[in-house]
UniProtKB/TrEMBL annotation:
Source organism (scientific name): Gluconobacter potus
Keyword DNA-binding: yes
Superkingdom per UniProt: Bacteria
Gene3D superfamilies given in the database record: Winged helix-like DNA-binding domain superfamily/Winged helix DNA-binding domain
Protein name as catalogued: Helix-turn-helix transcriptional regulator
Keyword annotations from UniProtKB, A to Z: DNA-binding, Transcription, Transcription regulation
Statement: the UniProt record of this protein carries the keyword Transcription regulation: yes
Domain annotation HTH hxlR-type: ranges: 22-126
UniProt xrefs under SUPFAM superfamilies: Winged helix' DNA-binding domain (SSF46785)
């Protein structure tokens, strides 16, 4: 495979031994991009931070606590976060349906990174 050396990411100052590990199809950049896509969306971060603050919540509570979110968007984002294994849906199988949501173990690992990103932004000159 011929590689075009004019591509910008080849100018990243890393040793040739580490270049493939960082920039290849299974490299660090690919993994970070995957995480960003998982949390991308107007309401996903507010949902994650809200569930981080309270261990379990019903969708009606989330709807009340996140101003401006429609029921449709809340449902779509909850399903997407569940599909990406960032939240867990707890169905109590009761006659009157009762469902709660909580952060998954993977999301609990991600939250300190998101909090650091918030701190970075607050400290970053605009």
């Amino acid at each position: 495979m011929k590689v075009d050396r004019t591509i910008t990411h080849f100018k990243v100052p890393i040793s040739p031994d580490h270049r493939e590990a960082c920039l290849g199809p299974d490299g660090a950049a690919a993994h970070v991009i995957r995480v960003i896509k998982m949390i991308q969306g107007r309401w996903k971060l507010p949902i994650l931070f809200r569930l981080f603050a309270d261990p379990t919540m019903r969708s009606s509570q989330l709807s009340r606590d996140i101003p401006g979110i429609s029921q449709k968007m809340l449902t779509q984002h909850l399903r997407a976060l569940e599909k990406d294994h960032l939240i867990e849906r707890i169905d109590f199988n009761e006659k009157r349906p009762r469902v709660e949501y909580r952060l998954s173990e993977e999301a609990h690992k991600l939250m300190p990174i998101l909090i650091e990103a918030r701190i970075f932004f607050a400290d970053h000159p605009r």
